[in-house]
Amino acid sequence: MRTAVTGLVNVLESYRGRDRVMRTLCYSCQLFGGVMMKNGEKKNWESLLIVASQLSHCRTVLRLFDDLAMLAYSMKYGLGKKEEDCLVRWISVIGNIADQLYYPCEHMAWAADAGVIRMKSDKWWTASTALWGLSLFLGILRSFRILLKLRRHREMHHKKNLPKTRGEIKSQIRSEVLSIISCTSDLVNAVHWMPPGFLWGGCSPIWLVGLLGTVSSLIGIYQTAVGGSSGGV
């Protein structure tokens, strides 16, 4: 019990850990609130959706300080000269650019909604969502490309009978599959938040948005625990 509490405290004391917990709670509230709304339990679902809205707003405000961290990561990756695969390299570079541009667009939308600047926020929210969606789509392409290469390596090592290497490759394949599921879940939600008329923009029920976001968030927590990585708004 003490170990579990200590682990939770350590997670909550870090910015990324706290953000992942808030993200999971936010989408979980949407999931259960949406289910309750469908069943006609008005008071309960309204409370859950209010909590989800406040958590989402809190995360948006905290992301005002993420630009420099993203810039540092982008500069460290550079043009990805260390990447062996050229396609993975350029997908990653374009993805980093999309992620970098996402933040100022979201900041402008937040500032407009808060009344800090006098302009409509709609176009800025659309731009930030589109950039997030582009980043997710590129992430899916990147994972598929890596999966293709890993499967080829696994076949080679299977013939050579190298169990340790096969185990490492199997772990990498699992990580990429989870990343694809996570990014796909978020991409469905990203399209939902685009203006009505764009694919299924505005058509997803609240419970589905919550379910997909919860799945993505739990995968992110799992990958963090095992040393992987998964991002998500």
TrEMBL record:
Localization (cell): Peroxisome membrane
Major subcellular location class: membrane
A GO cellular component entry from the record: peroxisomal membrane
Superkingdom of this protein's organism: Eukaryota
Keywords of the record: Membrane, Peroxisome, Transmembrane, Transmembrane helix
Transmembrane regions: 124-144
GO biological process, one term: peroxisome fission
InterPro entries for this protein: PEX11 (IPR008733), PEX11C_met (IPR026510)
Protein name: Peroxisomal membrane 11C
Native source organism of the sequence: Pelobates cultripes (Western spadefoot toad)
